[in-house]
Structures are given as structure tokens and as C-alpha cells.
């Protein structure tokens, strides 16, 4: 039986994403399940993978990108006893989910409640899990504290805003002027990064400092963000958006800066969050935290912002939209029929 997937044969611009028809379905090995993919997403992280600058990707070209997925178990390999055919599951694949079928390690997938929307659910796996773990695992934020989120109208920023609202956090967010109404609706105080100095704004409004900054920008944003923190505050770096976009900063240098700052005495704490590293170090947290998010979604306490829903074969255009920041919220790629 034939199936379709999107592959990268060389690193580069969105046009390197190509549709390929495979002649035979993959066969699950011992300890694996084959999953029929229902939905995946197009994220900024996927664009870094496509360009060949995302760290720790060891797969050789050609391969399929795709960081996350929702699907149903289609076939079960030997020695798999915890899943059944037809069961809905989620996984953080890092690469590989831009496909109609994929084989995954059975112990890596997380069961998904059947009555959740596929697009909203797949939005939780990368963006909301990143937001949740940065708040609760990295910064260890407590109810009622004050935080700053850079680039807060993006997928992860939006997730932090929603989760932060549940914790009664006082939230500031940097974004362009056109995103301010959206940010205010999400319960945060917007700062126009183009026309306002966020350091000056925060120091005027919060002279005693704030508890955490979530910074995907890197470069000269890091020392400025650190200057706003209380003595026991935390800078959580993630994404390195500026260096990845060619707008300043250096991914490796920024990472080393974060490590170096933690060696300085009497300074706020800084760390770099990478979801794959967190999962490798604490695999149980991945399943625990994702189940918490599924529960919040079921209870309608969070609602992912779906900016646009497209088809898998529209991956090229989806990546263009992500890189040009043309869409508020998550871009979902529907792969197979499903709710």
C-alpha cells in the first residue's frame, strides 16, 4: 500500500520540502507500533531543522521533518502490550512526522483522550509542553509572581500567557504594535519592542525586579533580560530566534553565556531549555506533563490558538508563513481524515 510523506533531500529554503510517494508501508519492529498520522504542525523549530541548524539532529539526508504528531495505532509490533490498534496517541518525534504513516517506539507515545480535537491536541506537544516545563520545571514559578515573555505572540509565547493566567501571574510581553490587542486579550501587558525599551518599561513599573524572563531571542537580549531579575529570579533561554534568523547573536555563544552566568556569585539564575534534553533527562516528566495539559484542554482551561489549518502537501507554504511570522498561533497540518 502506497503512502505519502514530505522529505528534505538538502538543507535550505522552504522549497527543499518535497512530496514523495512510498510504495510500501513501514513495518513496526519489536517494541514498536505503526501510527497513522492524523495531524502534525509547522513550527519555527521545524524551519531550523529544514535549514540544518537545529542542534543534535543526527539523521542523514534525505529524511522527513516534523516535530510532533497525533495519530492512531495502525499496527503493533512484537512485545507491545500497552497499546491497541485504533488507539489515539501523541509523540514528540523531533523529525519524521510529515508523513501519513510512521513507526514509533511504543514506550515513547502517550495515549490521548478520544474526544479531543486533533489540531488543538497536537498544539500541546511542542508549544504548550515547552511553556509548561519552562514555567514549572525550569523557572519553578509560583502563583502570583511577575514574568516577562519575549516574542509573546508566537506559539510558545501564547501558551505561556494561557498557562500563566491560570497561575494569576502578572505578565509583560514584547511584540510588535499590531499584536498588542491580542496580548491584552490574553491577560498580559504589551511592550512594543520596536518603539519602547523593554528594560526601561519594566524597571519603571517593577523597580524591585521580576521573577522570570522567558527569552527566545538571544544575543544582546540576554544581558538586558538578566538586568530585570530579582536576585533569585530566573532567565530561561530557548529557541535562539535572533541567531537562527540572522538578526544577531550566535547560538553556540549564547548557550555558553548562559552556562557562564551561572558561575557568577550572587547573580540571578539562567538556564537554556531544550525540550529534547529535558525529555532525555526526565522521560517521566514528558508523559506526566503532557497528561496534565490534556486534562486542562478537556476541562477547557486552555485553548490553543490555531492560526491556520493546512494540508500536509502545503508544507512549503506553511514554512513560509512561519518564517515570515504571518500567522498568530499554531499552524496545523492535517495529514489523514480525523476529527
Automatic annotation (TrEMBL):
- Boundaries of every Enoyl reductase (ER) domain copy: 12-333
Protein's UniProt keywords contain Oxidoreductase: yes
Q: Does the keyword Cell division apply?
A: no
Q: Which ranges form a coiled coil? A: none
**GO molecular-function term, one example from the UniProt record:** oxidoreductase activity, acting on NAD(P)H
- CDD domains with a match to the protein in the record: MDR8 (cd08273)
Which keywords appear in this protein's UniProt record, sorted alphabetically? Answer: NADP, Oxidoreductase
Query: Pfam families given for it?
Result: ADH_N (PF08240), ADH_zinc_N_2 (PF13602)
Please give the SMART domains that the UniProt record associates with this protein.
PKS_ER (SM00829)
- InterPro entries from the entry? ADH-like_N, ER, GroES-like_sf, NAD(P)-bd_dom_sf
Q: According to the lineage, what is the superkingdom?
A: Bacteria
PANTHER family attached to this UniProt entry: QUINONE OXIDOREDUCTASE PIG3, QUINONE OXIDOREDUCTASE PIG3-RELATED
Question: Mind telling me what this protein is named?
Answer: Oxidoreductase
Q: Which organism is it from?
A: Salegentibacter salarius
Amino acid at each position: 500500500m502506497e503512502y505519502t510523506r514530505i522529505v528534505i533531500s538538502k538543507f535550505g529554503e522552504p522549497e527543499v520540502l518535497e512530496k514523495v510517494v512510498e510504495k510500501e508501508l513501514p513495518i513496526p519492529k519489536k517494541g514498536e507500533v505503526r501510527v497513522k498520522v492524523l495531524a502534525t504542525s509547522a513550527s519555527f523549530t521545524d524551519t531550523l531543522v529544514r535549514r540544518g541548524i537545529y542542534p543534535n539532529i543526527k539523521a542523514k539526508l534525505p529524511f522527513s521533518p516534523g516535530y510532533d504528531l497525533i495519530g492512531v495505532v495502525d499496527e503493533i509490533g512484537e512485545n507491545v502490550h500497552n497499546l491497541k490498534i485504533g488507539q489515539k496517541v501523541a509523540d514528540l518525534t523531533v523529525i519524521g512526522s510529515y508523513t501519513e504513516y510512521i513507526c514509533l517506539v511504543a514506550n515513547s507515545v502517550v495515549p490521548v483522550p478520544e474526544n479531543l480535537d486533533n489540531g488543538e491536541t497536537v498544539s500541546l506537544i511542542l508549544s504548550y509542553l515547552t511553556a509548561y516545563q519552562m514555567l514549572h520545571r525550569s523557572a519553578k514559578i509560583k502563583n502570583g509572581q511577575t514574568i516577562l515573555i519575549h516574542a509573546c505572540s508566537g506559539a510558545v509565547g501564547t501558551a505561556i500567557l494561557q498557562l500563566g493566567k491560570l497561575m494569576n501571574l502578572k505578565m509583560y510581553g514584547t511584540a510588535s504594535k499590531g499584536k498588542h490587542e491580542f496580548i491584552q486579550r490574553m491577560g498580559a501587558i504589551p511592550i512594543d519592542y520596536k518603539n519602547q525599551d523593554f528594560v526601561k518599561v519594566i524597571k519603571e513599573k517593577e523597580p524591585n525586579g521580576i521573577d522570570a524572563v522567558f527569552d527566545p531571542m538571544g544575543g544582546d537580549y540576554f544581558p538586558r533580560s538578566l538586568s530585570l531579575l530579582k536576585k533569585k529570579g530566573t532567565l530561561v533561554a530557548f529557541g535562539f530566534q535572533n541567531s537562527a534568523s540572522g538578526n544577531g547573536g550566535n547560538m553556540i555563544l549564547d548557550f555558553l553565556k548562559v552556562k557562564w552566568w551561572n558561575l557568577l556569585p550572587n547573580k540571578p539564575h539562567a538556564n537554556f531549555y531544550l525540550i529534547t534534553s529535558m525529555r532525555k533527562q526526565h522521560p517521566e516528566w514528558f508523559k506526566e506533563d503532557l497528561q496534565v495539559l490534556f486534562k486542562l484542554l478537556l476541562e477547557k482551561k486552555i485553548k490553543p490558538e490555531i492560526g491556520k489549518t493546512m494540508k500536509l502537501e502545503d508544507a512549503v507554504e506553511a514554512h513560509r508563513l512561519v518564517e515570515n511570522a504571518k500567522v498568530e498561533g499554531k499552524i496545523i497540518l492535517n495529514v489523514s481524515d480525523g476529527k
